[in-house]
Write a structure and sequence with these properties.
By secondary structure, this protein is an all-alpha fold. The chain has 9 helices and no strands.
């Protein structure tokens, strides 16, 4: 004996669920990139690292000194060129971490492409490297025609072969990448977005020169030439819409100057003057 379930009245039959009845779970949109507030945070953080990094290095040195039996006191180490370069390198590591968090974590953007890192062929790279070398010779020629009457603070960094090797390695391997990442990567992108390409080129060149003014204080021919060099780097960044060309120019420029100094001072054994960056 079979039984069939009673039929429900039509008005009691449950209607099929429609898509509109299903609750939607939408993820929040990522924040709009390159806001001026973030630029302010970046500048404040960069200034903070310039103060914090040397203090941290001094603390580390003071802790390690008794165990390593180093004779140099912490006070003397604070003015040692190797210490100063190490502190600058630590500052750059902290800034690089901030940039990565800002771009990749906060904005959710691909890190390299967001900073306009574009691949290029090796032939174009070689041409840019040659252009950087020519620019270095041009700067040396101009500084010879209009020499500065006073030595500049950067010369004091080359007070020993060990210090010279340290500064040269920093100038070739670290400074070009980090300075271009800061000025032609982050700052250029912010300024171009909010004030246009022309402002980005001019402002980043001026800021780049301002960073190096303490190194060339009193030697205003060198300071002016650094402004010209920075303008070339910024103009190249704006013209190519890529960060890579300015890095190649910067590496070639610094490498040429350091190589000439290396051979001109018998492998950094007889340093009388130095020109860097």
């Amino acid at each position: 004996m079979s039984t069939t379930p009673p039929e429900l009245p039509r008005n009691e039959i449950p209607a099929a669920s429609s898509l509109s009845d299903v609750p939607s779970f939408q993820t929040a949109a990522p924040p709009e990139p390159w806001r001026l507030r973030d630029l302010g945070f970046f500048i404040a953080y960069a200034i903070f690292t310039l103060v914090f990094a040397p203090l941290l290095m001094l603390l580390i040195y003071a802790i390690v000194q008794p165990m390593a039996h180093w004779k140099m006191t912490a006070t003397a180490a604070a003015t040692n060129p190797i210490f100063l370069v190490s502190a600058q390198a630590l500052s750059y590591v902290m800034i690089l971490l901030f940039i990565y968090v800002l771009v990749a974590v906060h904005y959710g953007l691909p890190f390299w492409s967001a900073l306009k890192w574009r691949k290029m062929g090796w032939r174009r790279g070689l041409r840019l490297f040659a252009a950087g070398i020519l620019m270095a010779f041009g700067v040396l020629g101009a500084s010879a025609l209009v020499p500065d009457k006073k030595p500049f603070p950067l010369e004091q960094m080359f007070n020993s072969p060990a210090a010279a090797y340290t500064v040269a390695a920093f100038a070739i391997l670290i400074a070009p990448f980090m300075e271009e990442l800061i000025f032609r990567g982050i700052l250029f992108t912010f300024f171009e977005r909010h004030a246009g390409l022309r402002f980005a080129v001019i402002s980043t060149a001026l800021l780049f020169a301002a960073l190096h003014v303490p190194e060339y204080w009193g030697a205003w021919t060198h300071a002016l030439l650094i402004l010209v060099v920075g303008f070339v780097f910024s103009l190249t960044r704006g013209w190519t819409d890529s960060l890579v060309p300015s890095i190649i120019l910067h590496v070639a420029y610094n490498t040429c100057l350091m190589t000439l100094l290396f051979f001109g001072t018998h492998h950094f054994r007889s340093i009388e003057a130095a020109v860097v960056r």
